[in-house]
Amino acid sequence: MPKNKRRKIFVPLILILANALIWSGIYFYGIFGGWQLALQDKIYSTEDRAADEIVLVTIDDPSLADPELGRWQDWSRANFAKALENLNAAGAAVVGLDIIFSEPADSFGDATFAIALREAPQVVLAAQKDVEGNLLPLPAFRDSADVGFINLSVDTTDGVVRRMPLSDGEIKNFDIALLEKYFSTPAQNSSESEFIFSNEALRPPFDFSKAYGPIQAPLENGSMLINFFGKPGSFSEISFADIFHNEFDQSAIQNKIVLVGVSGATGIHDEQLTPVSAGEAMAGIEIHANILQTLLSGNTLQNLSQGLAIVFIASTLLLLGVLFFSSSLAVTLILFASSIVAEFLAAVLAFQNGVLLPFGFLFGGTFTVLVVALAYRYFGEGAELRYLQQAFSHYLAPELVRKIENDPNALGLRGAKRELTIFFSDLENFTKISEKMSPVALVRLLDNRLGAITKAVLASGGTLDKFIGDAVMAFWNAPLKSSDHAILACRAALATQEVLAGRSPRVRIGIHTGPAVVGNLGLSTRFNYTAVGDAVNLASRLEGVNKIYGSRILISGETYERVKNKFLARPLDRVVVKGRRKFTEIYELLAIKESATRAQNELAERTTVAFQAYCKRNFKQAAKLYREIKHPASAVLLDKIALFQKKSPPRVWRGETILKTK
Q1: Residue 353: what pLDDT?
Q2: Which of 61, 334, 573, 619 has the highest CB neighbour count under 10 A?
C-alpha cells in the first residue's frame, strides 16, 4: 500500500480513536460533570403532571397575615392541632408535617398538639440530620406520631436538588414513612406493600399499582434520583389559614396525602433549586411531593452504569468519527446536525423510560470529532488552498493576495457569518442601449464601464464577487477583515461616479451593511467565494431603487450610521423593498464631507428638514420644502404627500413606503 494512502487511512483512525478515548476518560473522571447535569435538566418535562392524590397545605403570606394565627414567631402549636383536626375531619389519608418541632413552645399549645397527634395516627413528623446530630421532634410528639428524616441531597456542583438520600437508621425517610402509612389506610387496603431499593443499574422496567406491592426503586450511592413532574407550583395547594378556619372544600382532602409546610411566605425560606426550577426555587414540601409521586407512579430514574456509559460513549463516537472522515463536507455537516438531534431525542426517549444517558459527553465528543475531521480535511488538502490563493487573484487586489499567501489562516475557506458592506452597480437603460449596438461596440462599452468599477473596488480593498451582465457585485470585510469596510465601499462608489461622470449610460449603485454568509459556496468540484443572505439581497434592491428616486448612489441607514462622520448624504425615504417586512432608511450619497460643495451641504440640510417634517406628518411644511428642492426624489415625496393630504396614512406609520417592484 502506498505511503500516502496508508497515511490517509491510519491518521484518521488514530484521531477518531483518540477522540473516543479522551471523552471516555473525561466521563470516567467526572470532568464537565456540571455541564452534563445542566443539559440533563433540560429534558425534564415542565408540563403539569402532578398527581391528584397529593395536596399541599402551604404556610404562605395570607397565613402569616391572619390575625387569629398571629405572628409566625409567636405561633402556638394549638394552630397546628386545630388544622390537624380539620384535616382529619375532611378525611385526609395521611398528613406529613414538614416542620421540625424540636423546641418547646407554650405549654398549652404543646399539650394540645400532642393530643391532636394521638387522635390522628396517620401523621408523620419531620426530623433532620445535621453536622451536630439528629434534630428530632420533642419526645411527647415522637410518642404520638411517626417521624421521618426530610434531608435532601444537594449537588455541590450547582446547588440543585436531584436526589433523596435513603435513611440508614431506626428513623425512616420522611416520604417512605408517609407512603407506608398511606398504604395501610382502609381506602388503600394494601398493608402488604413494601419498598425495595436496589443498587443494581438498569433494572428492567416494572409496573406498580397502589393496591399491591412491592415498590421498587434504584439506588445510586445510597440515594434515589427524583423524577420531577412539573415546574414549581404544579401541585394542588390550599392555604394553611383556610384549613385553620375550616374554609376549604373537604372533597379536595378526602383520601389524599397532605403535606404541610412553608411555601410562598415572605421572610421564611424552605426552598431549593431543582432541575425544573428555571431560576425559581421550589418549596421543600413540593420537592417531597415529587418524591412521593416518583415512588407512587413507579417512574423512577437511574443513570447508566459507568461501564455501560463508557461503552456507549466510545462506540458512538467511533462510529461518528468514521462517518465524518469518510464523507464529503456537506454530508459531514448534515451528519453532525442529525447526530446532535438524534442524541438529544435518544436522551429524551431514555428519560421517559427511566434511564439518564450521558448525552452531554456525547455532544462534546461529537463536536470535537467534527472539528478534528474538518481540520484534517483543511490541512490535508493543501492543493485546494493553493488553488484558492491563485483564484483569489482574479477578484482581490494584489496586495491582499500577498497577505493571504503570507498568512493563510487569515483566509476563511469555509462559509462563515460576518458583517459585510455589499456593493451592487448597474448601467442605466443598458438593455435598450445594447439592442442598438454592434457586439464589438457593446463589449468595448462594458469593458470601459466595468473596468472603471473594478478598478475603484480593488483600489479600496474590496472583493470583486462577480459580474452579472452589466452589473457588478462586490463586498468589503471578507476574506480579510477591515474595520472601516463601509467607508471603503462609499469611497469606491464616489470614485466610480467621478471617473464615469458625463458618460452614458450612467451607473447606479446600491450599498448596504449587514450580516451575510461568506465563503466558498457551491459544489465540491465547482465553487465560488461569494456572499449570500438578506443583506446581499437588500443591497441589490437598493441599486434598483435608484430608478424610482432618480439618484445615483443609494446607501442604507445601516451603512449611513457607519459613514456619516466622513461622508455627506441626504435622507430620501424609508422603504420596504419587495421580499422584506421592515423598512430601510435610504440616503443618497453626495460627497466626502471635507470636499463637499456649498450647494451639496445646503441640499443635504434642506432635504433633512423636509424629510423630518414628512415623517412627523407635517405634510404642508414638507410639501413647501420639497417644491423648493429641484430633484426627481422630491417629486416622489410630493406625490405621496398629495395622497396623504386626501387620505391620512395608517395610524402606525413612520414614513415608510412599500415598494411593489424590484
Answers
A1: 86
A2: 573
The rounded Cα 277 to chain-centroid distance in angstroms is: 17
In our burial notation (b when 16+ CB lie closer than 10 A, e otherwise), range 402-419 reads: ebbeeeeeebbbebeebb
Residue 390 CB coordination number (10 Å): 11
Burial class (CB in 10 A: 0-12, 13-18, 19+), 135: middle
pLDDT in tens, 526-570: 557 789 999 999 999 999 999 999 999 999 999 999 999 999 999
Region 582-607 average pLDDT:
95
pLDDT of 204 strictly over 50? no
**Mean pLDDT of all residues in 80-86:** 94
243 DSSP assignment: H
* DSSP, residue by residue, 220-239: BTTEEE----SSTT-SEEEE
What percent of the chain stands above pLDDT 70? Answer: 87
Please provide the size of the chain in residues. 662
Contacting residues for 549 by C-beta, under 8 A, at least 6 apart: 572, 573, 586, 588, 632, 633, 636
The confidence band for 405, taking pLDDT boundaries of 50, 70 and 90, is low
Question: What is the predicted pLDDT for the residue at 206?
Answer: 32
As to burial, measured by CB atoms within 10 angstroms (0-12 exposed, 13-18 middle, 19+ buried), residue 204 is: exposed
Q: Output the pLDDT for position 273.
A: 92
pLDDT value of position 208: 34
According to the model, what pLDDT value does residue 389 have? 55
What is the pLDDT averaged over residues 509-519? 93
| Gap between the Cα atoms of 217 and 603, Å rounded | 81
Let me know: does 114 contact 140? Beta carbons within 8 Å.
yes
Task: Please tell me what DSSP assigns to residue 593.
Answer: G
Structure-block grid coordinates of residue 185 = 389506610
SS3 content of the chain, % helix, strand, coil (to 5): 45, 20, 35
DSSP-based three-state secondary structure for 552: coil
Closest C-alpha among 109, 54, 106 to residue 83: 109
Look up residue 12 and give its three cell numbers: 484518521
| Residue 199 reports pLDDT greater than 60 | no
Cα 305 to Cα 282: distance, rounded to the nearest angstrom: 29
Question: Closest Cα to residue 147, out of 157, 161, 137?
Answer: 137
- Cell triple for residue 138? 420533642
Query: What is the reported pLDDT for 411?
Result: 52
Report CA-CA distances (Å) from 284 to 187, 375, 378. Answer: 27, 50, 54
Cell of 387: 488553488
**Rounded mean pLDDT of the chain?**
85
| Residue 25: partners with Cβ closer than 8 Å, 6 or more residues away | none
Pairing of strands 153-154, 271-272: unpaired
| CB-count exposure of residue 526 (10 Å: 0-12, 13-18, 19+) | exposed
Contact predicate 575/640, CB 8 Å: no
- In order of 53, 411, 568, the CA distances from 385 in angstroms are 68, 10, 41
Number of other residues whose CB lies within 10 A of the CB of residue 597 = 11
Phi and psi at residue 107, to the nearest 5°: -65, -40
How many angstroms separate the CA atoms of 545 and 233, rounded?
Answer: 56
Question: Which value, in Å, is the radius of gyration of the alpha carbons in the chain?
Answer: 37
Task: Give the model confidence (pLDDT) of 338-362 as tens digits.
Answer: 999 999 999 889 888 888 889 889 9
Task: Judge contact between 237 and 263, C-beta under 8 A.
Answer: yes
Q: Residue 204: what residue type?
A: P
Higher pLDDT, 436 or 520: 436
Q: Considering only CA atoms, which of 659, 556, 569, 570 is closest in space to residue 607?
A: 570
Q: Which amino acid is at 97?
A: L
